[in-house]
Amino acid sequence: MAKLFFIEDASNKHTVLVNRRVFHWTTYVLFFYNVILGLTSALLRIVYSMTFGLVLMFRLDRVVLMRGFERFDAGHKTYIGFIYLEHTQNNSVLNVFVSLLLDCRKKTPTTETKGD
């Protein structure tokens, strides 16, 4: 949604934010949606933990949300997604490779072929 309505690619280094008024209005409206979604997620997480805690109370050698129950925990899914994002975006070998490609691209002259 952001690329379609709010971001315009001005050059290789900078992006320009267009439709500022609509962007600020959308951010304002989505803030309340995200607050409600976060509170609901937190309450569901507490309810799931209490339910599994009561069911597994007699198994004190187990944690409350053990392996296999992660699908019920939205916080765990968010954490795994964040770790995956950090891994893909901050891969140092990939960052060096891309910067070398960009430097090589800047150094080589571009030749344009004109039609006869």
Summarize this, please?
This protein is mostly helical. The chain has helices at residues 2-5, 20-55, 74-89, 92-107, and strands at residues 7-9, 15-17.
Could you give a short account of the major beta sheet? 2 strands, antiparallel
Helix content: 55-70%
Determine the N-to-C terminus distance: 42 Å
Number of strands: 2
| Order of strands across the main sheet | 1-2
Kindly name the structural category: mainly alpha
Outline: flat
Helix segment tally: 4
Which residues form runs of ≥5 with pLDDT under 50?
none
Portion of residues in beta strands equals 5-15%
Instruction: Give the helices and strands as they follow along the chain.
Output: HEEHHH
- Overall mean confidence score, pLDDT: 76
Radius of gyration: 24 Å
Question: Would you write up a description of this structure?
Answer:
The protein is mainly α and 116 residues long. It is built from 4 helices and 2 strands. The protein has helices at residues 2-5, 20-55, 74-89, 92-107; strands at 7-9, 15-17. A two-stranded antiparallel sheet has the order 1-2. A hairpin with a 5-residue loop joins strand 1 (7-9) and strand 2. The protein is flat and about 70 Å long. It starts with a helix and ends in a 9-residue tail after the last helix. The mean pLDDT is 76.
